[in-house]
Amino acid sequence: MVKRSKTAVVQTGLRIREPLRIHLEKAAKDRGVSLNTEINDRLERSMEHFGLLPEILTLAYGERWARFFVEAHKNGLLRLRHGDKEKLIARATAEFAAALKSVAEKPE
Q1: Which of 72, 70, 64, 67 is nearest to 95 (CA)?
Q2: What DSSP state is assigned to residue 1?
Q3: pTM here?
Q4: Distance separating alpha carbons of residues 10 and 90, to the nearest angstrom
Q5: Rounded to an integer, what distance in angstroms lies between the CA atom of residue 60 and that of residue 51?
Q6: Which helix (H) or strand (E) holds 73?
Q7: Which of 64, 71, 72, 107 has CA 20 to 30 A from 54's CA?
Q8: Domain range list for the chain
Q9: Using an 8 Å Cβ cutoff, are 38 and 23 in contact?
Q10: What share of the chain is helix, strand, coil (3-state, %, to 5)?
Q11: Is-contact 2 12, C-beta < 8 A?
Q12: With contact defined as beta carbons under 8 Å apart, do 78 and 92 qualify?
């Protein structure tokens, strides 16, 4: 991996579907910015917003459940991937049931 400074700007070969490109170009035009700026701004915001997820989950469900949901997400249990979705759903369901049982057995 090439070592770059944190302020380096690099070119990527991003591939997106045409309907998404049209949507992004319209949003960029509406804001008066380039397509590149629109994509960069959206990616940066999405990274910032992910950092808020644990805080929001803690406020909504409490610290224990927030940790569970964040770990489940990190381990891919909350994402449906291409392929055998039924297997993934069964695995996630079993993990969720085990977590519920564990939480029910341990007083806070």
Answers
A1: 72
A2: -
A3: 0.49
A4: 41
A5: 15
A6: helix 63-74
A7: 107
A8: 16-60, 62-108
A9: no
A10: 70, 0, 30
A11: no
A12: yes
